[in-house]
Amino acid sequence: MRIVVSEFMSLDGVVQAPGGPDEDTDGGFAHGGWSHPFFDPEVMGGVFDEALSNAGALLFGRRTWQTMAAAWPERAGDPFADRMNAIRKYVVSGTLGEDELTWAHTTRIPGDGAVARIRELHAADGGDLLVMGSPTLVRTLLGEGLVDELRLMIEPVILGGGKTIFPGDGALRTLELVSAVTSGTGVQVCTYRPAAQG
């Protein structure tokens, strides 16, 4: 399965809490919901529809999974929500109990064996393994060379700090720009893949 990461991102690289004020206030982050003014249903909605239609499963970190699990089941009846609820899901967590996996079709990947299990999924067939949000997990995946595609919706806003997806290990990672589209709200929707080495 190809691992595809899809993120709302500010100009200064922040991905924290794009969806709502209480989504993630770690570090005193006070701009939750910052992406809403820039959402373009035609361009950005199309990006999500395409990503989900190509996905064989979703992969989340614990916090993002909990946020999604609290929101999507009650939206049943909408085609996108129905697909979100029906698709296989994996959540990386060292703390969630099996009884807490209330969102349908969710399997927990224990945190201490996460990279090895994700490598197994990566080597398997079955569509894309789509990651949304989950900045801590994405940093790990990028650090391990497990991301096949980055789909960044770069929004015209500077947040001045917050969580990012980029490893801080000093390693050089060269990417190739595969496509770029500008939405009517000024969002640059950019798709990157790791550049061939040598």
What would the keywords be for this entry?
27% strand, 5 helices, globular, alpha/beta, single chain
- What would you call the shape? globular
The first-to-last residue Cα distance is: 24 Å
Mean pLDDT over all positions: 95
Largest sheet: 8 strands, mixed
- Gyration radius, in Å: 16 Å
Summed up:
With 198 residues, this protein is α/β, with parallel strands linked by helices. The chain is built from five helices and eight strands.
Task: Describe the protein's architecture and organization.
25% of the residues lie in helices and 27% in strands. It is globular and about 40 Å long. It has an 8-stranded mixed β-sheet, sandwiched between helices. The protein starts with a strand and ends with a strand. It has 198 residues and is α/β, with parallel strands linked by helices.
List the helices and strands and how they pair.
Elements: E1 3-10, H1 43-54, E2 55-61, H2 62-71, H3 79-86, E3 88-93, E4 106-110, H4 114-123, E5 128-132, H5 135-143, E6 149-155, E7 175-182, E8 188-194
